[in-house]
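The following block was generated as part of the benchmark described in Methods. Ligand: zinc ion.
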Amino acid sequence: MQEILRIAVQKSGRLYEGSMKLLKECGIEISNGNNQLRVTAANFPVEVFFLRDDDIPEYVQDAVADIGFVGENVVTESNKQTDSIEKLGFGKCRLSIAVPKNGNMRTVSDLEGKKIATSYPFILSNFLKERNITASIHEISGSVEIAPKIGLADAICDLVSSGSTLFTNELKEMEVILSSEAVLISNKELSANKKIILESLLFRIRSVKKARNNKYVLLNAPNYKLDTICSLLPGMKSPTILPLAESGWSSVHSVINESDFWNVIEKLKVAGAQGILIIPIEKMIV
Ligand code: PRT
Ligand code: ZN
């Protein structure tokens, strides 16, 4: 019988959709219509377990699951023995220390002797140790942001993404102690066959991630401007240039990275590009 790779995914919550979308874009068909705890994929040798995110590192360490999709914050806090293999590009946030907006704490050293509420006592105590600060850590499992207002703590250490929770609770971010996103973690002792399945899954994940970070660009330009335009297009190799029906004009095709996308488009326009079309890429195999 062919071996199967068991993937632990958050059952519901902020990482569920990103995880399922990624599997789908990797061409892996999972139907979780009946809210089951375990589903086998129809067309790829994987089985998905739906779990609470906090349990995933331990299950992967103990080989109840082979790999898992989980936040780096949870992996670091759990301090379990797993390998972090690949960042997955969703669930981005940061673990930060925040203090009352109108208070007098400004820098990390102002935390000396203070009380900090958090759901991340392990990461926080390591951070404080590194900075030689003695503060008391008050562990709470939720609604950390209200702790200063109700007099439970002087500061908090919690996840932030947009910053609106801090804003609403009249807190300000003082120090980022960990940047996080969803990662693929793996058991340290996968069998040779499971490693082969994981490699094949990773190949698909990397192609999906690359495609998400890049756009296909098509544009028209007069031939005498092609040199300038091509110098602005990094692409995978050199751009493709095809003659247009109108003489003296060409169509240029290339790939642009999302990070400097608008910058490049503006420069292309200035350099004489016309009829610029931007097309999403579904998969990018390099
Ligand atoms: O039930 P289960 O235990 O599985 O889920 P959970 O409730 O523990 O976790 P969940 O679904 O809330 O979050 C899962 C993971 O999503 C986290 O471990 C992070 O890796 C990631 N993530 C990304 C976030 C956020 N962004 C985030 N903003 N997790 C929580 N938050 C919370 C934060 O705690 C705070 O309350 O959102 C609030 C702040 O958001 P902003 O936008 O107001 O700054
Ligand atoms: Zn959780």
